[in-house]
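Give me a protein, keeping tokens residue-aligned:
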Amino acid sequence: MSQTKPYRVSHLDALEAESIFVMREVMAEFERPVLLFSGGKDSIVMLRLAEKAFAPARIPFPVMHVDTGHNFAEVLEYRDSRVATLGLNLVVASVQEAIDTGLVRELPDGTRNRIQTPVLLAAVEKYRFDALFGGARRDEEKARAKERMFSFRDEFGQWDPKNQRPELWGLYNGKHHPGESIRVFPLSNWTELDIWHYIAKEQVPLPSIYYAHDREVVERNGMFYAVNEFIKLRDGETSEVRKVRYRTVGDASQTAAVLSEADTVDKVIDEVAATRITERGATRGDDKVSEAAMEDRKREGYF
């Protein structure tokens, strides 16, 4: 008598199933969810998971981009193309409009990452979103490592790391009062390497800046920033054209590239497997303001 082979689920399939379960749970519990979509790799994977979670129907919620105005052109082009292909409703919360209307003030150094938070909270209030899908992962940064998959935010959009709800046996508590909201992180248990393996498996297209290319950069504090309209050379600095790629995409004035020859998905996977520094630690200037920079921003209402 032939024996039945044991049923095994791969690591990626298990992560995918968990994320899809979380997305469906949100649709069952909340009235007005939205997916935060920047055109970065994590939000792109999240969008792919949403496709699979609700197929053959269309994705049943809008996507929102908190637009600092300091964007990489390749990423904006990808964002608009992907939204059009999937027939999604795109909500753009503009930091520049918020500056023009007086909601926020431009910082002296010209960076806009910190002033995204009031713009995000204003959009949440305007559109009455009660659940926001974010692409944060626990392996990225220590503040994100201790955040729950369903992260409760009070009526001011603030997060209290000492007052988090238990999530035993995959049970998620989405109860909230009017004005409160939940940030939902379906990719919490994924790693950067998992993301790239999934991109390879699903053949998900990405903006070209995620692969090695020639770009004019300037080195500051050990990081390579693209020379563009947002980053000008300072006195004594010189730029050079180097082969680089971006591990993460954020505000163009604070996101650095890494030296790389990885111009294909397989080469990127090999490169990520060998690295010992997270993508935020290696490339995000906004996380180096202080040891608690990310947690401080999350307490204020950041993603």
Notes: The chain has ten helices and ten strands.
